[in-house]
Design a protein that fits this description.
Helices cover 49% and strands 17% of the residues. It is α+β, with helices and mostly antiparallel strands. Keywords: Membrane, Transmembrane, Transmembrane helix.
């Protein structure tokens, strides 16, 4: 029975690592984002990632310097998987 918890905890830790890698690869346009689609008039839009807020598990940001605004829960999902996997493995080790 205890090896099932260890396997599940390791799976959750692996999932959080994969999500962290996905975030790093796709930066600045994070997965599971809902973004505005504002047309920009001018030569080039201002570039760069702009952080707005982290509220109720949603990260607010702009991938293009403030022209469009995006919200995503992917950071909270990755942190939740990391915390849950760590807790499961910690409880498994504590029971030994």
């Amino acid at each position: 029975m205890s090896s099932h918890w260890a396997l599940a905890g390791a799976g959750l830790l692996l999932s959080s690592g994969v999500l962290a890698a996905l975030i790093a690869i796709s930066f600045p346009e994070l997965p599971l984002s809902s973004c505005t689609d504002v047309g920009y008039v001018g030569d080039e839009p201002p570039g760069g990632f702009v952080y707005y807020e982290f509220y109720l598990g949603w990260l607010g940001y702009s991938p293009d310097g403030g022209v469009n605004r995006c919200d995503t829960p992917i950071v909270t999902i990755a942190l939740g998987l990391l915390a849950l996997g760590s807790a499961m493995l910690g409880l498994e080790r504590w029971k030994r």
